[in-house]
User: Which sequence fits this backbone?
């Protein structure tokens, strides 16, 4: 498949980084910076990217980077934006780039406050569906049925995944979107739209983790595409909290085709897979109704 934007020659990451092979979070950052360009300041809380970037002065990101505490990515980005406004520097983007643990769980209070104020930042959650950096513990982004080190095979996670996209959309900020590294052009276009938003923009990125998902690293893109095509992770946008736009029509592939490639779901029975399928179908129908208005 040919990509119009993902293959451009602009690179704001150095070749060397400390991510695991097949890391979706590393590729997500690379694509985001292609979209935002060199006039960007990145804020990273405690997460995999605290390690991926490497130790100063050998870090891999070529733009200014601020490491901060687990729960403070959004508010630190907001503070940097305020400082830039005081200095009259309005041509610099501020990107908070956090994992699902630092977004759906530990950092949701700061993110909600930023959304309520509609501060001019971009917040991106690269979602690998668990606390991968600290040992693959479950987060509220971990889906029903998944193995983690705190939800082992016989006691897999029984709760559904928290819908952070809808939670943030409920704040009625200017721009909310989902994106997948399996569709890089779509991801880049959405970051460009976020750049133009008149206030807070939030992008929820599907970012597979081969280590935590017990999958082959070379399947990173395949898994990311399957998640979209089986409707587990649909691609859509929400403008001002009310206008829904579906960006891609899934191929309606059964969820089993997605699940069977990942060891974290290998313990599931046919009945449990059917539970997942019904939930996915319900969520898709609900999204379609919202898009139709």
Assistant:
């Amino acid at each position: 498949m040919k990509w119009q934007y993902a293959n451009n020659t602009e690179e704001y990451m150095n070749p060397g980084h400390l991510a695991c092979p097949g890391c979706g979070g590393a590729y997500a950052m690379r694509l985001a910076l292609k979209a935002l360009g060199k006039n960007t300041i990145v804020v990273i809380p405690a997460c995999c990217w605290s390690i991926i970037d490497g130790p100063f002065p050998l870090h891999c990101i070529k733009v200014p980077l601020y490491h901060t505490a687990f729960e403070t990515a959004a508010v630190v980005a907001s503070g940097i934006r305020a400082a830039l406004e005081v200095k009259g520097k309005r041509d610099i983007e501020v990107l908070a780039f956090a994992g699902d643990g630092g977004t759906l769980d530990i950092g949701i209070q700061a993110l909600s406050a930023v959304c309520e104020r509609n501060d001019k930042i971009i917040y991106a959650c690269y979602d690998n569906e668990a606390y991968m950096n600290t040992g693959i513990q479950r987060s509220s982004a971990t889906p029903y049925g998944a193995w983690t080190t705190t939800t082992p095979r016989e006691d897999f996670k029984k709760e559904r995944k928290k819908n952070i996209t809808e939670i943030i959309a409920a704040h009625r900020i200017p721009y909310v979107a989902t994106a997948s590294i399996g569709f890089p052009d779509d991801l880049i276009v959405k970051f460009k739209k976020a750049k133009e938003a008149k206030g807070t923009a939030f992008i929820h990125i599907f970012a597979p983790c081969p280590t935590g998902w017990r999958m082959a690293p070379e399947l990173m893109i395949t898994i990311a595409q399957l998640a979209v095509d089986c409707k587990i992770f649909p691609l859509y946008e929400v403008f001002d909290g009310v206008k829904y736009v579906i960006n891609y029509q899934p191929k309606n592939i059964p969820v089993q085709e997605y699940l069977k490639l990942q060891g974290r779901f290998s313990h599931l029975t046919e009945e449990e897979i059917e539970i997942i399928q019904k939930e996915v179908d319900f969520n898709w129908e609900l999204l379609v109704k919202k898009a139709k208005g």
Notes: Residues 231 and 283 are 9 Å apart (CA to CA). The two ends are 33 Å apart (CA to CA). The chain is about 35% helix and 15% strand.
